[in-house]
Amino acid sequence: MNYDAIIVGAGIVGCAIADALARAGLAVCVVERDTIGGAATAASMGHLVVLDDDPAELALSAYSCERWRALAAELPAASDFRATGTLWIARDAEELDEARRKQVRLAQAGIASEIVGGAALAALEPALRAGLAGGLRVPGDAIVYPPAAAAYLARRAAARGARFVTGVAVDALTGDGVALADGRTLRAPAVIVANGCAAPELVRCVPIRKRKGHLLITTRPPAGTAPLANHQLIELGYVKSAHGADGESVAFNVQPRPTGQILLGSTRQFDDTGSEVTPRLIARLLERGIEFLPDLARLSALRAWTGFRPTTPDHRPLIGRWPPRDGVWLACGHEGLGVTTALGTADLLAAQLLGRPLPFDAAPFDPARYAPEAATA
Amino acid sequence: MSATIAIRIDGRDVRVAAGISVAAAIAQAGVVATRRDVAGEPRAACCGMGVCFECRVRVDGEEALGCMARVAPGMEIVTDG
Ligand SMILES: Cc1cc2nc3c(=O)[nH]c(=O)nc-3n(C[C@H](O)[C@H](O)[C@H](O)COP(=O)(O)OP(=O)(O)OC[C@H]3O[C@@H](n4cnc5c(N)ncnc54)[C@H](O)[C@@H]3O)c2cc1C
Ligand code: FES
């Protein structure tokens, strides 16, 4: 079969790209070896958040959050989109200073936020422990249930003619398309590798490492009890943890689910590539959670699971043409922010592919930065 | 005939065999559901081994897995079936 573009992987990134290209009128085929919106997308927290610690990430996440807000009205109820906003929590005066710097950086990207003092924080989030210094409230952030959102984008793409081939892997890139594990070949002038952590299986030199994370969800509290959180709550120390050194880290990151359940994150570790839950890390996750939200101790844990963030050395995703191989494009390496940045990624990649004006600067995400000199990739 | 004990299920006094699980007691008492899901549909014990969490009930005020908890004299079990 001949297409205009083949997308490898139907995580949130592949689905968003399929949607963007199908909308532009291209004949698109998506190949997914497992299920749509499985893998990292299903494991994720689905916090749609603007992160500002790197200017490129700020531009991509700010643009993407805007796109999510525009999409919200269309998303089916199962996507559980809620405009919860984010509350970044400062434990002490030093962290409150960091909140003020964060506010300035966000403002430079046009993102509104508001500094809240200790008393205001307690009023917004009564279940937080007493004695916190305050925080930064970012009202434009939101939450979504990622696998349902991915499925919606896939359905919308399919309604515009995109074809989805599931349950069969792409075995190799052939130069003019892809070879499937069942022996079939598909042809297209553009192949977009959007298979997350598995990208190095198809494009050897792509520097993606799996960074494991643990999450835990509680049962629903008894009817009539106040929710334990109203915003997505994150400690300001989170960014240090997210982009810090290679060791294990645990940061307080709590999401109120629309059902009243509490989704508790998150851990980060590089060295463990097995999917099993580590009880020691779950214990640390809970300790950290209870330190900020003492009443968490009164809820029951329903399930804990793990997932892998596709991580690049400079923590920026790879979006664009892969110079060593004609017709190969990358859209992978979205690390811990790929649900948020899927929509920005799709718009950028579609604009590049179609030669249209770019929605924001593509240079920081150019995969060429990791392309080997010789065309051996 | 093994010894029986008195417990309460959803406000009703019942006698059940000593030592059985809370889920078994609920079934014996003729209560079909342990809980309701987010859509309000009734759910009941499924795996019987503490994995599926479908058997959640309140035992003396605390959330418990019906299949893992054992009955005790005077126990108060509340389902939302
Ligand atoms: C614990 C955790 C919490 C997170 N929380 C957040 C959050 O709150 N907010 C946020 O924005 N992001 C979050 N993330 C990050 C986010 O989940 C990822 O960045 C995002 O899901 C990546 O999407 P993807 O489509 O690139 O990859 P995936 O979802 O992994 O999809 C890749 C797909 O490619 C398929 N595939 C692989 N190889 C092949 C092949 N050879 N042929 C065919 N198909 C193939 C896979 O089966 C898979 O379906 C979190 C991640 C983790 C692990
Ligand atoms: S029946 Fe499955 S956990 Fe009790």
Q: Can you give a write-up of this model?
A:
Chain A is of the alpha/beta class and 377 residues long. Chain A is built from ten helices and 19 strands. Chain A has helices at 12-23, 39-43, 55-71, 93-108, 118-124, 146-159, 199-202, 238-243, 279-292, 338-354; strands at residues 5-8, 28-32, 47-48, 86-90, 114-117, 134-138, 142-143, 163-166, 170-173, 177-180, 185-187, 190-193, 209-218, 232-235, 249-256, 262-268, 301-311, 318-321, 328-332. In chain A, a hairpin with a 5-residue loop joins strand 15 (249-256) and strand 16 (262-268). In chain A, helix 1 (12-23) packs parallel to helix 10 (338-354) and helix 3 (55-71) crosses helix 10. The model of chain A has no long low-confidence stretch (mean pLDDT 95). Chain B has one domain: Beta-grasp domain (Ubiquitin-like (UB roll)). Chain B has one helix and seven strands, in the order E-E-H-E-E-E-E-E. Chain B has one helix at residues 22-28; strands at 4-9, 12-17, 35-36, 42-43, 56-59, 62-65, 76-78. Chain B is globular. The termini of chain B are far apart. The interface between A and B is small, with 7 and 5 residues. Bound molecules: flavin-adenine dinucleotide and FE2/S2 (inorganic) cluster (FES). Flavin-adenine dinucleotide binds at residues 8-14, 31-34, 38-41, 43-47, 169-170, 194-198, 201-202, 213, 215, 266, 307-310, 332, 334-340 of chain A.
